[in-house]
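Thread amino acids onto this structure.
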């Protein structure tokens, strides 16, 4: 059995009772993206299950051995540094290999950064596209142009170092008036959720230092924000 266990994206209280039970009692090994980060979380809850490194740089090499151990009966959990494994984090390769080998996989529900960003943005969240990180170089412009055509909200992960570049590019492809939201430091002390037209976000964040982790939520091409929607009578 492989458990995918979401971990807090900032506030260490955001972990479920089930996640704590699985990590502390159900598994013999925890595969961790960064064992130091996970050790801090486990220490907070007095969990002493052994950790093993499983990250983007060793997953291709490690996956065969891990699946063999799982198939032989060792229960393991996979965690990433924060949020849900497999969401812009290692996990997919291992899950696919487990499914192919007939190993049972269970993903616990739990924290992930894009859901609170999307839902708190005030932008339509009935339909959305999750993009995650844009490529830094090759293919970036193509993705941006594609995203600009989407009729529904889309969600990007971005680093503070590339925020201004990303906002500038989004203004270029989506236009200055497209509504967007910057959700920063979610669940942490300096959480900030700012929804405004793209050009306004660009001007605001050009004039101040931006730190921390962030999600960008951008409304779709033909959508208007709820307060701009005309009254519609469906009857
Ligand atoms: N697996 C994670 C998830 O489920 O959301 C995502 C991991 S990805 C490597 C890290 C990115 O997630 C960050 O660069 C940022 O875009 C976003 N992120 C993670 N924690 C966040 C937070 N507390 N506030 C805003 N964005 C966050």
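Threaded sequence (235 positions):
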């Amino acid at each position: 059995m492989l458990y995918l266990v979401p971990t807090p994206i900032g506030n260490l209280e955001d972990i479920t009772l089930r996640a704590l039970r699985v990590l502390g009692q159900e598994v013999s090994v925890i595969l961790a993206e960064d064992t130091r980060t996970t050790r801090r979380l486990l220490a907070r809850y007095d969990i002493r299950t052994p950790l093993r490194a499983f990250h983007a740089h060793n997953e291709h090499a490690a996956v065969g051995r891990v699946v063999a151990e799982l198939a032989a009966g060792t229960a393991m959990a996979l965690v990433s540094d924060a949020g849900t494994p497999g969401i812009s984090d290692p996990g997919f390769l291992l899950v696919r290999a487990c499914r192919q080998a007939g190993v049972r996989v269970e993903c616990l529900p739990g924290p992930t950064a894009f859901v609170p960003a999307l839902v708190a943005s005030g932008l339509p969240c009935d339909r959305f596209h999750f993009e995650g990180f844009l490529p830094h170089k090759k293919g970036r412009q193509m993705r941006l142009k594609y995203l600009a055509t989407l009729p529904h909200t889309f969600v990007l992960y971005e680093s503070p170092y590339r925020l201004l570049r990303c906002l500038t590019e989004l203004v270029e492809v989506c236009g200055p008036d497209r509504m967007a939201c910057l959700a920063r430091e979610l669940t942490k002390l300096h959480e900030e959720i700012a929804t405004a037209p793209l050009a306004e976000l660009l001007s605001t964040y050009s004039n101040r230092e931006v730190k921390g982790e962030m999600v960008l939520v951008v409304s779709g091409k033909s959508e208007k924000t709820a307060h701009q929607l005309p009254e519609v009578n469906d009857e």
